[in-house]
Every structure is written in structure tokens, then in C-alpha cells.
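From the methods appendix. Each design record in this collection lists the discretized structure first, followed by the designed amino acid sequence. Records were kept in a plain field format so they could be parsed without special tools. The example shown here is representative of the layout used throughout.

RECORD:
C-ALPHA CELLS (162 positions):
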């Protein structure tokens, strides 16, 4: 049973939360670079070659990290994992790579990232609210819904000023 987090539980600023939030901000900033970098690679090769190259490099880096810091033996448990969890993240990642490297040429980096973030926040809030895929339930409070509305408004402004 998923743990229920109530609106108004307050902000928990222990060092783990601060470190996780900081790492997320850094990787979020770096993620804004991915579509234009991959798009440029696609212009110099082809779109699918660029997506494949990015994916292969991702696999190599993660494989190296698994060998150095992780437990490579844990890969043996993959046959026990439901198909959704086994291939879902990879399919989403490949879709993101392929689509973002093309659309950034037409939308620009700012609007591309704004649309991605708006969509991510809407879906993530729904996942939290219903506690699916093993997440704790975090109800869609009026403040959370206002935050989503503000992000949508900001995205619309990015679109209008394109």
C-alpha cells in the first residue's frame, strides 16, 4: 500500500532532500542541452544516427557506472521484471531522444524544454495523485494545481513570444 502524503505536511529540508533537489536542478539544466546537441549531430549525420549515437553513449556510461559502483549481478534479475518496467523506460527515452532532436529545430530549445517540462509536471502530478507505478500518493492540492496552471501559463507565454 502506498504511503499517503498530506497537503500541508510542510517542507522537509534534511540534507538528503537538499542534495537530491540540487542534483535534479543540475541534471535539469544539462537536459536542456540534449535536444540541441543531438539535433546538431543529426544535421551532420542523420536523425536516427544521432539518436542511436546518444543512446549507445548513454548505455556505455551507465554500463561503466554499474561495473564500478553498482552490482552487475543484479542484471540477472531482469528476467523476473514485468515487461512494462523492463522496456518502458527505454522506449520513453528513445522516443524523447528521437522527437526532441527534431522538434528543437522548429521550436527552439526554450519552447521545446518548456513543453517537455509542462507535460512532465502534468503527468507526474497525476501519477502522484493516484499513487501508480509504486509511488506514494501525493494528493493534487489546490496549491499543486495552481503550480501546474502557472507552468502551463508560462509555457503558453513561451509559445506566444516564439
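DESIGN:
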Amino acid at each position: 500500500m502506498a504511503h499517503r502524503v498530506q497537503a500541508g505536511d510542510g517542507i522537509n529540508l534534511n540534507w538528503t532532500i537538499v542534495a537530491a533537489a540540487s542534483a535534479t536542478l543540475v541534471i535539469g539544466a544539462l537536459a536542456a542541452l540534449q535536444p540541441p546537441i543531438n539535433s546538431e549531430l543529426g544535421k551532420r549525420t542523420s536523425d536516427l544516427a544521432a539518436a542511436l549515437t546518444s543512446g549507445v553513449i548513454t548505455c556505455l556510461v551507465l554500463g561503466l557506472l554499474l561495473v564500478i559502483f553498482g552490482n552487475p549481478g543484479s542484471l540477472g534479475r531482469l528476467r523476473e521484471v514485468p515487461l512494462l518496467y523492463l522496456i518502458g523506460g527505454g522506449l520513453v527515452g528513445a522516443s524523447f531522444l528521437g522527437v526532441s532532436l527534431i522538434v528543437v529545430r522548429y521550436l527552439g530549445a526554450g519552447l521545446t524544454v518548456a513543453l517537455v517540462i509542462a507535460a512532465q509536471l502534468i503527468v507526474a502530478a497525476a501519477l502522484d495523485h493516484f499513487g501508480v507505478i509504486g509511488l506514494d500518493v501525493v494528493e493534487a492540492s489546490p496549491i499543486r494545481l495552481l503550480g501546474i496552471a502557472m507552468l502551463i501559463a508560462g509555457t503558453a507565454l513561451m509559445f506566444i513570444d516564439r
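APPENDIX NOTE: The longest strand covers residues 4-5.
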